[in-house]
Amino acid sequence: MKAAYTFSAVFRVPAGGTSLDPDRFETTLRLFAPPPGVEPGPERIDWLFFRDRLWHGDIGDEAPLRERVSEWLGVEVVSLSFSELRADEAYLDALREEIGRDLSRFNADSTDQVLHQYLGSSVHVVDADAV
């Protein structure tokens, strides 16, 4: 069971008295998702990351997430945009089941509504090796 939130990230490398050309680089960033329902631990994100950070497939408030990712990576992230949740079928089934346990925390009537209102159409089901 695997999943990752995938982002397009642009970061700037500190030059430290030198000059870099280019001084910005674009990359794909994957934040691996913990199993649904697992209480927050030492992971960088918890299983409710989608609820707390995304809205209709976009980052709800980019600046705080960009700052947090900058801390994790040790470089200045100047742009961050959500691409998709890449998940295998087992993860998506577990996520749906966990969401369905308490729809009130998502202010929704169904698991499909929850997934749509937070992730939009940005869910990509893949083989576990492709996460």
TrEMBL record:
InterPro entries reported for this sequence: LWR_salt (IPR049798)
NCBIfam families: LWR_salt
The protein's name: LWR-salt protein
Species, as recorded: Halolamina litorea
Gene expressing this chain: lwrS
